[in-house]
Design brief:
Strand content: 5-15%
Order of helices and strands: EHHHEHHHEHHHEEEHEHEHEHEH
Number of helices: 14
Oligomer: single chain
Shape: globular
Helix content: 40-55%
Number of strands: 10
Largest sheet: 5 strands, parallel
Strand order of the largest sheet: 4-7-8-9-10
Structural class: alpha/beta
Distance between the termini: 16 Å
Length: 345
């Protein structure tokens, strides 16, 4: 499917079930056994479901929880940093040129390669293809400085905001070079999930004009190492990305993952798009974890899977996935129905 060919069935991606109870039920183990080795148990659960590839393996931070982020790890809008401190930190950041010149490729690739080999051995027939959020280019600096500070910088200090885009471009380029090398060596498949949460349900959080002028050139450069080895960048689509979708395609994005139909971003809309070379997009999706999987019946879930398959046939290359993590509000029966539907084509 990554190569644009028809498969014997619609492949399914997994790794985002953020509910240990569901994982335990699928694998047929108790909570104690799960917490002894949550990764091993999770891999077995995905194998039982019939998963073809794993984007990641979500493990909660602690027992009796389901989140992979919590109050101590998530970047809230308010931080201990003042705006003045934020400006000072940006001023003392190394330049984009310094970041690339000081990047120790051999050391970083050695670690990346070892991780891929180890995890692929555990996954067996399932393709291990962890998302590479830093690849391409970085724009969401609110994780470092908090929402308020980041958006103040973009609005009030354009010279610092431009530096952040350049630094994010250097970081993304270096990461893409690592992934591209792994693709060349057969350690990573010819598609990679990446992207930035820069949109809300009402559209981009930053002016599309700013994004196109200062971020897009960095993204285009950062995606080139992937495209040069035939690896398709698939953009994670949180929120309403329609105002910047064509820009992303022009930069080299070859597919999209998501979507949130409550924003107007539906599979029916996305499949109308083409890559900048005029070829069908690669789709990871489209089942919504907000308005579909938690509230639909198993029969309705299967109908939505069939609709996605029908819509993509001849228009896009579909790999079934969800819009985001599957939390405990999604019934286990609906998860199973999603997989079963691909076998009932």
């Amino acid at each position: 499917m990554f190569a644009g060919h028809e498969a014997d069935k619609t492949p399914v991606l997994g790794g985002w079930i953020a509910c240990p109870q569901h994982i335990c039920s699928i694998a047929g183990v108790g909570r104690e056994e799960y917490w002894r080795d949550p990764v091993k148990v999770s891999i077995e659960a995905y194998r039982i479901l019939g998963t073809d590839g794993l984007i990641d393996i979500f493990v909660p931070h602690k027992e009796d929880d389901f989140r992979c982020v919590d109050a101590s790890s998530y970047a809230h809008a308010s931080t201990d940093l003042s705006l003045e401190d934020t400006i000072n930190r940006i001023d003392t950041m190394p330049s984009a040129e310094d970041i690339e010149s000081q990047f120790n490729f051999e050391q970083e690739y050695s670690k990346f390669k070892a991780h891929l080999i180890e995890m692929q051995q555990q996954c067996g027939d399932m393709v291990y293809m962890p998302a590479q959020w830093d690849a391409g280019a970085v724009i969401e600096w609110y994780f470092d400085f908090g929402y308020n500070n980041f958006f103040y910088v973009v609005g009030l200090y354009p010279d610092r905001a431009i530096k952040l885009m350049e630094v994010g471009g250097a970081i993304g380029y270096c990461r893409s070079v690592l992934v591209a090398k792994a693709v060349e060596e057969g350690l990573y498949p010819h598609a990679v999930l990446l992207g930035e949460d820069i949109c809300t349900q009402r559209g981009p959080m930053i002016s599309p004009d700013f994004i196109e002028k200062y971020y897009a050139p960095q993204l285009q450069r950062g995606l080139k190492p992937l495209l040069d080895v035939g690896c398709k960048p698939v953009w994670h689509s949180d929120g309403d990305i329609r105002p910047i979708m064509d820009m992303l395609i022009d930069c080299g994005v070859q597919g999209f993952q998501g979507f949130q139909p409550e924003c107007g971003l539906t599979i029916d809309y996305v499949v109308q798009k083409r890559t900048r070379e005029g070829k069908p997009l690669l789709i990871f999706g489209p089942l919504a974890v907000t308005t579909e999987l938690p509230v639909c019946t198993p029969q309705e879930v299967k109908a939505k899977v069939r609709h996605a398959i029908d819509v993509c046939r001849g228009n896009a290359n579909l790999v079934l996935f969800t819009s985001n993590t599957i939390n405990p509000d999604v019934p286990l029966e609906n998860i199973k129905a999603m997989y079963e539907a691909t076998l009932e084509e």
